[in-house]
Model the fold of this input.
Amino acid sequence: AVAPAAPAPDRVCRPHQLYVSFRDVGWHDWIIAPRGFMANYCRGSCPFPLATQLNSVNHAILQSLMHSVAPAQTPLPCCIPIRLSPISVLFYDNGDNVVLRHYEDMVVDECGCR
Amino acid sequence: LTPGLGRAQPGPLSPQAVALLRALGLSEPPAPRQPRPVPPLLWRLFRKSQEKLAAAKETQEPEGAEGPEQAQPCHVEELGVPGNIVRLVPDRGGSVQLEEPALPPLCAEKPLFFNLSALAPEEQPTLVRLELHLGPAGAQGPPGPGWELSLSLAPGPQLWGRQAHWHHRQLLLTQPLPPGRDTIHLDLLDLGPVGASPLPRNLSLVLEILHGSGGDGNGTEAACASLGRSLEASLLVVTLHPQQCRPVARRRR
Done:
């Protein structure tokens, strides 16, 4: 009858930012711009009842509820990207062409329980 | 990240580097021979794409909510065509000085070679534009009326130079040289093999600049000399990679 204690806030599902500089990976001689990229990722848990606030949809709320009742039978919902952004990269290719390329779904902006 | 991700140290690429390059549509890190100045157009397109991305983030609405139409993810607004890859391909033909008339009324005959092997077969060309830059204007200023451009498909490399006769060429277009302009754009999409997808791996063209001065050889020579310019060419190619561009999801009504 008593809801389990909620984990510490920094352990619940949320985006984590990670910036990678192209100079660090040795690609700064052929990538003109930008200087690096965001390799954000989602991490954290989706426990009951917090799942109701973590950008969760109904099935995830039900799943977290069932996990709280029978953890062995039902796993917790997953913390995954739910909003992504594209990036554009300007670089030289092997043919000495200058290339501007657009990449979809490259940066994680938001995470949610699913 | 460990330095082994890129090519900071000699040796094979790390699996992570291979995966990231593949995500960028590349098989290995390019090794440009010498960094070239970045064309202003591509800088402008890059900055505009950054502004668009920042604006899209600021106006982010919750998922599924009604709101203004999303910006086209794979559309080059400034050029007005769909596409997610913009390349500026340098000309590898020899340079030519325009004050040395080839054969009146022909002022100049310039071979144009473009290496298009970097394009993947599944990339669909949506813009192929030949950009001609006439060198710094002489005292006479930009060219006046009476000039004409002729662009042909060159014979294959095996014929060029030894047996290349004009009838081996396939005329693609002729048009007056727009008076008063130093930069000329010729749209080649749908001309000859350039309209076909995939594009040829090598595109060989011949550009001729003629001056119609009424058959007067001396007039032509003087006109050619008056042009006194160098001519540089590059090819702007915009392509759409269908697997990397999903159509814009229609909003629920």
Q: What stands out?
A: The first strand of chain B starts at residue 75 and ends at 76. The CA atoms of residues 128 and 166 of chain B lie 24 Å apart. Residues 40-58 of chain B form the longest helix (19 residues).
